[in-house]
C-alpha cells in the first residue's frame, strides 16, 4: 500500500514539476531571441504550441469553433494578445530579472481585483502577500532609483511587463467565469492558436520576418513546446490531482527563472536581487495559502 501511495503521489506532482521547469526556462530563451521581432517569436511559438496544446487537451477544435470564439470572445483575445506581446517586448527593453519579477506580481494583482469586485475579502495573508510582492520589486529597482539610472528606455519595458501581468490576470478571471457558465471558452490551446494566426498578419503588416540562424530556430522550437505546447496540459494534471501541491510548485517558478538567468551570466547576482526574489516568492506563498479556493484560476 505504501509503495502504491508513494507512486500515486509521484504521478500526481511530477507533471507539475516538469511544467514548472519548462515555464521557468522561458525568460532565458526569450532574452536570447531578443534580436527577433516580437511578433515573429509569437507566430512560431503560438502556431506550433497552440496545435500541440489542442492535441493534448483533446478539445473539440474546428474552424467553426474558432470563428465562434473570435466573434464572441474578441475582447478577451485582444487582452490576452496584449499580455503575451507586452511580456516578450519587455525583455527587449529592460533587464530580464526585473521584468520577470514584475510579471510575477500577477497573483497579488489577482487578489486585489477580486477584493475590489467584492468576490472575496482581503485577509492578513492577502495583505502580507501583496505587501511582500510589491516591496520586493521596489527593493530590486532601488539601486537604479538611487543612481538616477531609471531611464525611459527601461520604463517601456517595465510597462510591457505590467501590461503582461494585468492581461494575464484578466484572461484568467474571464475564462474561469466562462468555464463556470459553460459557454464561450473551449481550450487555451485554441486561444493560443488564434493569437498565432493574428500575430502572423501583425508581423506581415507592422514588422518583417528575420531569418533565424540555426540556434534561433532551435530556441524557437523549444519555446513553442515549453511555453505554449505541453506545460498547460501537464499543469492541469497536477492541479486536478493535488491542488495544494500545484500551489506549492507555482512558488518555485520565479526563483528558478532567475536562477537560470544568473547561471547563464545574463543577470548579475546582487543582494537586492536575492532579497527581492525571497520577498516576491514569500508574497506568492502568502497569497496561495490564502486563496486555495482559487487554485483553479491561479494555475
From TrEMBL:
<protein>
    <submittedName>
        <fullName>Putative membrane protein</fullName>
    </submittedName>
</protein>
<feature type="transmembrane region" description="Helical">
    <location>
        <begin position="37"/>
        <end position="54"/>
    </location>
</feature>
<dbReference type="GO" id="GO:0016020">
    <property type="term" value="C:membrane"/>
</dbReference>
<dbReference type="Pfam" id="PF00892">
    <property type="entry name" value="EamA"/>
</dbReference>
<feature type="transmembrane region" description="Helical">
    <location>
        <begin position="246"/>
        <end position="263"/>
    </location>
</feature>
<keyword id="KW-1133">Transmembrane helix</keyword>
<dbReference type="InterPro" id="IPR000620">
    <property type="entry name" value="EamA_dom"/>
</dbReference>
<feature type="transmembrane region" description="Helical">
    <location>
        <begin position="97"/>
        <end position="113"/>
    </location>
</feature>
<feature type="transmembrane region" description="Helical">
    <location>
        <begin position="74"/>
        <end position="91"/>
    </location>
</feature>
<feature type="transmembrane region" description="Helical">
    <location>
        <begin position="217"/>
        <end position="234"/>
    </location>
</feature>
<keyword id="KW-0812">Transmembrane</keyword>
<feature type="transmembrane region" description="Helical">
    <location>
        <begin position="185"/>
        <end position="205"/>
    </location>
</feature>
<feature type="domain" description="EamA">
    <location>
        <begin position="15"/>
        <end position="141"/>
    </location>
</feature>
<feature type="transmembrane region" description="Helical">
    <location>
        <begin position="269"/>
        <end position="287"/>
    </location>
</feature>
<feature type="transmembrane region" description="Helical">
    <location>
        <begin position="125"/>
        <end position="143"/>
    </location>
</feature>
<dbReference type="InterPro" id="IPR037185">
    <property type="entry name" value="EmrE-like"/>
</dbReference>
<keyword id="KW-0472">Membrane</keyword>
<feature type="domain" description="EamA">
    <location>
        <begin position="156"/>
        <end position="287"/>
    </location>
</feature>
<feature type="transmembrane region" description="Helical">
    <location>
        <begin position="155"/>
        <end position="173"/>
    </location>
</feature>
<feature type="transmembrane region" description="Helical">
    <location>
        <begin position="12"/>
        <end position="31"/>
    </location>
</feature>
